[in-house]
Structure formats: structure tokens, C-alpha cells
């Protein structure tokens, strides 16, 4: 495999954003995902190869370590930041259609709830796994999920809630989306949820952690 | 009934680095970076805190052993078995609330929106610890006050924990004066400002504060559990 691509994977896995970034200490002074992505493009490496062989494997590696408890939230967030920095260079190729995403993932915190840290972590990890993510933010009404789904009809939807009161709001969102788009897959997640609740409200999958969401999406 | 409200000076807060590590989870590799952010938060975070908290001591308290409910001023609270067991010897209940205001939460979210997720998350954790720490000080005040009357106090228990439904916040806040500490409730019982806490503390001669009772609760995302497990 190309040496730049290998280095890029390492930079994403360990959250090395750019040369200036002091993190991780073991890579201090080295170039990061920012410079390497630019260099790879300048050297004529195809954007698809950069994404699929360089960036995504790096995010998968850190995501796996996170779900195994080998790294923590700081490493995940730094990896995601390195990934988003690299993706800026690939943006024109996404827009031209030269690089294709795996699909579109619409995510938001259900109406009535303003908690977003878990939702953000899932959004960043899914984006890092090669999906286009449309993050609707917090306090998202059923109609907003539906309107967005109608703009991107082949999307998968993720709904988050942190409170026992707001998780109840998920049911009406799932119902509205499934009535209009029965084949759309819906993931739900959040601290008070479990698989039983997910089944009860008619969602397709209870997502325990970010990597679980990626694994589910990749198997669709 | 006896109402107490306090404004806690920021300088009195006792939040240490280890508590943030415990909630965040920090490897040796990430420690340097995290420390840099924590230093900044310790320096600038306190200015963003506007801490107000207090409690109302209610004497009209009836324990319904059969339904595992407590009636406070005649209002039934379905506190479920775990909390009921801890409060059942209470002769009075202190209904408490505490907030750090909006500014720190807004700072946290501004950082996150600007792709500074880790920095913003550390602000968020600091806010959670600040409101708990402030309430700890208010609770200590209550403890001293009650000790003079020969009573002890329990741990504090909040809707959303140990099986007590968040939806009971509405009844809880109906016991407090309107706008108490500047906290309001959304339709989904979310407190505004977000970094606010509320709940009950039991009071009575047979009531004692206990160490963490995580083993009897099934919440996997609780701040106290994370602190205990990661220390």
C-alpha cells in the first residue's frame, strides 16, 4: 500500500490533525491528516483511494478501540477532528460526484431534548466511516425529520434522547417516518434506551455506541 | 416550611482535575492535551458560573410503604423502591434545586459547533461537576442546620435516577416558589438552565448519609457511577 495512505490511516487512528497539533505527543512535529491528504491528492492518488483505504480504516480502528474500552472520548474526538480536517480536502470530489459516500445518515436529538454529546459522537463516527451525515441538531420535531427524509429519501435516520421523558417522544417520530417511508431504517440511541424499547416503538435498531451504528449501517 | 436560598461564590467551588479525568476517561497519551484544556477551563470557567441553589424543608411528609410513595404536602411522589428505602425514615423532606446558569453551557456548545469538541466537552463536564459541587455545599449547610435539631440528612435523590421518573419534576417544582433559583421546566421536564439539578433530601433522627449506593441502581450513564468507577 502507498506509504502516504498508510501514514494517513495512522494519523486518523491517533488523532494527528496537522503538523502544528501537539497531539498525540508521540507524533509531535510530524505532519498530520491535513498535510498528508493534500500531499496525496497532489501526488495523484485517487480521492476514493484516500477515503476508502486511508481515512475510513483509521476511523474504524479508533472506533473499535473505543468500543473495546481501549481508548476514551478524547481520542475519539481527536480522531474525528483529524478526519474532518482531511475531508475538507475531499469536499470538491464529493460535490462533483467523483467520490461517492456509502449513503446518507440523518441524525438529531428528539424534540423536547437538548442533549447532544452522544449524538455528536455518533454523527462524527458515522461520517468518518464514509457516510454523508446531515445533523439536524437538538430539539428536532418529527416534521423536520420527515422533511429532511423526503429531501434525501434513501437515507437512514438516527434519533437520540437522554431523558426518560423525551425518549417517549421518539415513538411519534418513528411512527410518522414509518407511515410515510416504511422501508427507511431508523436507529435510536441514548442513555435510558435499550433494545426492548427500540422494538416497542418500531425502530429498527438500538444503537449502544458509535461503532454499533457504523456496524449496522455498513451491513445495510 | 422553611426556605433557604444561597448564591455560591465561584471561589468556593472545589473541582479537581481527577474528577474531570474520571468522567472523561483519559489515557496517558491524551493527558497532556486534556490538561491544556482543563487549565483553560479552570482559568476561565468560573467567570461563566452564576450559581444559585437552595432548599425548602417540608414537614408534611407521609410515607406510603405499600405503594413505595412519599406524600410531600399531600402530593404523591412515586420515588420507587430504591429511593423509598433510603428515605422511608424521613420526618421531613428538603426539596432542593441548584443551577450554574446558562453561560457555561453556551460556551461549551459554541466550542463544539466550531469543531472544538473535546474542549467543549470538558467545559460541559466542568459545568456538571460545578452544579453538583455547589449543591454539595448547600447540602452541608443543611446538614449542620439539622444536626442542631438532632436530625441527620440523607443523600440527595433526583428524578431521572434510581427509577424515579423525570416526569415527576413538575410536581417537585410545584412545591417550590415560582421561578425558584431562576430554574424553569420545559414540557418534557428538562430544566432550564440545562446545568441544573433538583430532588429530595430526607431529614430525620434515624436518617444517615451513606456512601454511593450505585450497586442498588441500574443507571449506566450516571455521573456518580462514572466518578466512582473511574477513580
Describe this structure in words.
Chain A is 55% helix and 10% strand. Chain A has 10 helices and 5 strands. Chain A has helices spanning 3-14, 33-42, 47-67, 73-96, 117-128, 142-151, 164-167, 169-180, 195-200, 210-218; strands spanning 104-109, 132-135, 156-160, 186-189, 205-206. A 5-stranded parallel β-sheet of chain A has the order 2-1-3-4-5, sandwiched between helices. The two termini of chain A are 28 Å apart. Chain B has 231 residues and is of the alpha+beta class. Chain B has a single domain (2-230), classed as 3-Layer(aba) Sandwich (NADH Oxidase), CATH 3.40.109. Chain B contains 7 helices and 10 strands. Chain B has a 5-stranded antiparallel β-sheet with strand order 1-2-6-10-7, sandwiched between helices. In chain B, strands 3-4-5 form a 3-stranded antiparallel β-sheet, with helices on one face. Chain B has a two-stranded antiparallel ribbon with strand order 8-9. In chain B, a hairpin with a 5-residue loop joins strand 8 and strand 9. The mean pLDDT of chain B is 90. Chain A binds chain B through residues 22-26, 71-75, 77-78, 80-81, 84, 112-114, 116-117, 120, 124, 163-166, 169, 191-192, and chain B through 24-27, 29-30, 32-34, 36, 109, 112, 115, 117-118, 121, 124, 160, 165-167, 186-190, 194, 219-221.
